[in-house]
Amino acid sequence: MTRGKLDRSRLGVGILCRRGCTGLEEALRSLSDGGVFGLAGEATVLFQGRCPDGPPLAEQYGLAWCSAAKKGTTVQGLRRLAEGMQSDLLLLLGQDAYLLCQPEAVAEQIGAAGELLLSGRAQTVRLGLRSPADLGPRRCIAYERFWGAGPLAPLRRAVHPIQARKAAGAAVFLHDCADRRHRGLIDRADDGTYLVSSACLPWTSRSVMVRRDFLLERILPELGRSWLGRRRSEWEGRAWRRSGWRVGVPAGLFV
Fold first, then answer.
1. Distance CA 248, CA 233 (A)
2. CA dihedral 218, 182, 111, 115 (to 10 degrees)
3. pLDDT tens-digit profile of 60-73?
4. Which of 38, 103, 158, 227 has a CA 20 to 30 Å removed from the CA of 254?
5. pLDDT cut 70: percent of the chain above it
6. CA distance 132 to 171
């Protein structure tokens, strides 16, 4: 496999709809125009709960679809998608995942993400746009408390080292050279993708690429045991933080 290229038979796109069809038509149009479906050997939309307009919309774009009578949890939706698909790698998206990049950049980032996952250098790759807006205000504030300017930040790191380490992952959304600021926790691949320790960046189910077997065997069982993990798109439980896994964070494709 050459850099930037990924055998389409190895990639599947799974789209989880949990809020009816809100935003789905715009998302599918964006994904189609950006060439995402052309990079994948299979693509499936899962409708959790009532969405009568959804199946015809999925069929309009040549996508497979399935439905669940009850809305269920995010974990249940991800499990059904993963168990129903066959691809080695899954690109998991929400119903409002809007693509901002040109097809060339899309193919390059998805190809690079596939290389990282198949080589084992990363266990998951975030493909949401890498920006403070994607991070959220709470994590921005936490980062500044422990790693910002001023005399109190070093003191806070000394008193609360675990919390400081957890906050360090936000650097990839806030600084251009996050790997230099947090060596050991944050590295960088040749293409510029950050490789972030799971100790300082949580799992997310939004706009993420992951090996299908890793999702089914390692992530979903842990999420199923976590009350918050079952109900939120992010998870940073003890098993995740202590795993030694790496999260790839490229420039990003989706908002």
1. 17
2. -60
3. 999 999 998 777 88
4. 227
5. 96
6. 9
Res 230: pLDDT: 59
Q: Is 157 inside any structural domain? A: no
pTM for this prediction: 0.94
Residue range of the domain that includes 45: 8-117+203-236
Tokens matching residue 70: 């009850």
Any alpha helices (H) in 148-215, and if so which ranges? 152-159, 161-167, 171-174, 178-181, 212-214
How many domains in the chain? 1
CA neighbor of 121 nearest in space, from 195, 171, 180? 195
Residues of the chain short of pLDDT 70, as ranges, are 1-4, 227-232
- The tally of CA atoms less than 13 A away on the side-chain side of residue 134 is 25
In a domain, 143, yes or no: no
The reported pLDDT for the residue numbered 64 is 97
